[in-house]
Write a structure and sequence with these properties.
The protein is mainly α and about 240 residues long. It has 2 domains: about 80 residues, Orthogonal Bundle (Arc Repressor Mutant, subunit A); about 150 residues, GntR ligand-binding domain-like (Four Helix Bundle (Hemerythrin (Met), subunit A), Up-down Bundle), CATH 1.20.120.530. About 70% of the residues lie in helices and about 5% in strands. The protein has 11 helices and 2 strands. A hairpin with a 3-residue loop joins β1 and β2. The chain starts with a helix and ends in a 7-residue tail after the last helix.
Length: about 240
């Protein structure tokens, strides 16, 4: 019984410091705190939030690991410059999309995808193997079955892009998989907050897939670039629409 109670306490502590990190993280990435601001001290913050100092300290460590804050003796915990934020960290991306993301940041996110993913698609057309093709095809079928309006459909979308990046056969590109996947998922969720999705993205993905199957690197590159451009237009078209 003692072990069970300890395990329960450990799980609760994890939930608490994760929640604190999320709440502060959202306030940082949405501008409630500005770079250079000093966060409330550990003792005062733990009293204010009614949590242990350990839980608050662990939350700050999470934020520091994501580049959002830095702690210095005699100064305290200071909000970092945006240039130091790990913007492709899946948690940071989630926090950015909790509210309206800055339009310039949204554009920069799609710009990054436009730089990375078409090249990954071209490499995949030359290097893919049957297992990776099967994973991409399975993801396409699940996207079609579930649609991007569901969690299952969005997971399939992420799986498609992950399989394509893996097929590019570049370890440094592969390190971007989780960030690219989170960007894709959260921009889709963002679009759905303002209304139903206006376009079926499966045909765009299928054109990429067919070019990869055909080992046509140029067409794969162009099809992926077109896919991202259309996704960006869909997102910015809705940017000023009223929230549902």
């Amino acid at each position: 019984m003692a072990a069970t109670l300890t395990d329960h306490a450990d799980r609760r502590a994890l939930r608490v410091h994760g929640r604190i990190a999320r709440d502060i993280g959202v306030q940082i990435v949405t501008g409630r705190y500005s770079p250079g601001d000093i966060l409330t001290g550990e003792v005062a913050a733990s009293d204010e939030l009614n949590v242990s100092r350990t839980a608050y300290r662990e939350a700050v460590r999470i934020l520091a690991a994501k580049g959002l804050v830095e702690s210095r003796p005699k100064i305290g915990t200071r909000v970092s410059r945006m240039a130091d934020w790990h913007l492709l960290d899946p948690d940071v991306l989630e926090w950015i999309f909790q509210h309206e993301p800055d339009p310039a940041l949204l554009e920069a996110l799609f710009e990054l995808r436009r730089i990375v993913e078409p090249e990954a698609a071209a490499l995949a057309a030359s290097r893919r193997n049957p297992t990776q093709l099967a994973a991409m095809e399975d993801a396409l079928e699940r996207m079609e079955q579930h649609t991007l309006e569901t969690d299952a459909g969005r997971r399939a979308d992420q799986d498609f892009h992950a399989a394509l990046i893996e097929a590019a056969g570049n370890a440094f590109l592969a390190s971007l998989t989780s960030g690219v996947g989170a960007a894709i998922a959260w921009t889709t969720v963002f679009k759905q907050r303002k209304g139903p999705l206006v376009r079926d993205a499966v045909p765009d993905h299928r054109r990429v897939f067919e070019a990869v199957v055909a080992r046509d690197a140029e067409t794969a590159h162009d099809a992926m670039a077109a896919l991202i451009d259309m996704a960006f237009r869909d997102t910015t078209r809705l940017e000023n629409a009223p929230m549902r």
